[in-house]
Design a protein that fits this description.
Shape: elongated
GO biological process, one term: carbohydrate metabolic process
InterPro entries: Ig-like_fold, Ig-like_OmpL47-like
Distance between the termini: 15 Å
Largest sheet: 4 strands, antiparallel
Oligomer: single chain
Strand content: 35-45%
Strand order of the largest sheet: 2-1-3-4
Structural class: mainly beta
Number of helices: 0
């Protein structure tokens, strides 16, 4: 799975993700996860604003 942040304003500074409610990690490369894992992602811009959380669950 790969993530990209787009939008107007100050631009994305970082993308973070977590799997199954674990710790937020900084995203830098595509990630792999198992079926039924819940993956959440969010982006923070250079002004310090954090996006809403995107939640994805892959089903078999």
């Amino acid at each position: 799975m790969a993530f990209a942040a787009t939008g107007e304003g100050s631009g994305a500074a970082a993308i973070q993700y977590r799997v199954n409610g674990g710790e937020w990690k900084t995203y830098s490369n595509p990630i792999r996860f198992r079926p039924y894992d819940v993956v959440e992602a969010r982006a923070t811009d250079h002004a310090g604003n954090t996006s809403d959380v995107l939640t994805v669950q892959r089903r078999r």
